[in-house]
Amino acid sequence: MHGLLLSNLSVLSLTGADRRSFLQGQITQDMARVGAEAPTQGALLTSQGRVLALPWLVEREDELLLILPTDCIAAIGAHLKRYILRAKAICSMPGMRIAVAGILPSVLPATLTERLQVLPLSNRALLLGEHSELTGYLTTHTQPLAPCDWEWACVMAGEPTVTSASAQTFIPQMLNLDLLDAISFTKGCYTGQEIVARTQHLGRIKRRMFLYEVSNAPASKGQAPAPLTPLYSGADKVGEVVRSAKTSTATRLLAVVTIDAHLQALTLADGSALTHLPLPYTIIESAL
């Protein structure tokens, strides 16, 4: 088993009697599905239906935790606090009290202590715990895991992320959140719900997230393409990168691309060609 402290992920905490009902009105996911055994993903949106963040949600003792990219944690905390008003809920940043780690593969470690919480994902798992205890566990019970290998697993699972750089760029269906079971279409109202429902039921979804490999660029050179890096079909921009990963042998990325162009000969700005690869889930025919 390999493990890594994920400094790029941090935690927001919601406590108080109204924490679930408050978040129910702010997120695409049905809070009735959120428990302590596995993380559940949802999207926080603007009133125009644009994705602000994609937290993993989990219950831990008497609080709800939102696991988010570290670079947007302060902005999302401030965003939620603006909506709390009279609700009996407190939003805080636990800081070093709760840290996040990743492990590969997604197995339940037999050596896990009661103070550490394992959250299995499709091809990997998250671990939550007090910072010093979590780092001690990783040192004692896991082999080192390279950040690029963790990110590779995320990309290969077809799971998007939204950072401060890409916030307010995409609507949920562009990121395949309806296919990843991160949207409830029966839960009732939440911020941005009207746009999401209208897109799903009244309009054709014109852009979707697809998986590509960078085919002719030396894997040893440069960095993985950053979020919002444009994709081109000829001279026309047809998409942008959502997340990417580069190992010593290959570079792969998830990108939101115009559906009509997603199988065309696509390139990055430097001319690197992209090869379309299948996702681990099906983009339904009606979405194409």
What is the topological layout?
Layout: E1 2-5, E2 9-15, H1 19-24, E3 40-41, E4 44-45, E5 51-53, E6 56-60, E7 63-69, H2 73-84, E8 90-92, E9 99-104, E10 117-120, E11 125-129, H3 131-141, E12 143-144, H4 147-156, H5 193-202, E13 207-214, E14 230-233, E15 236-246, E16 251-258, E17 266-267, E18 273-277
Parallel strand pairs: 1-12
Antiparallel strand pairs: 1-9, 2-7, 2-8, 3-6, 4-5, 6-7, 9-11, 10-11, 13-16, 13-18, 14-15, 14-17, 15-16, 17-18
- Main pleated-sheet profile: 6 strands, antiparallel, barrel
Q: By CATH's scheme, which homologous superfamily of the largest domain applies?
A: Probable tRNA modification gtpase trme, domain 1
User: Helix/strand/pairing class, anyone?
Assistant: alpha+beta
The total of beta strands comes to 18
Which CATH class of the largest domain applies here? Answer: Alpha Beta
Strand order within the widest beta sheet:
13-16-15-14-17-18
How does CATH name the architecture of the largest domain? 2-Layer Sandwich
User: Averaging pLDDT over every residue, what do you get?
Assistant: 92
Percentage of helical residues?
10-25%
Return the string of H and E elements: EEHEEEEEHEEEEHEHHEEEEEE
Poorly predicted runs of 5 or more residues: none
> What is CATH's topology name of the largest domain?
Gyrase A, domain 2
Q: Hey, roughly how much beta strand do the residues contain? A: 25-35%
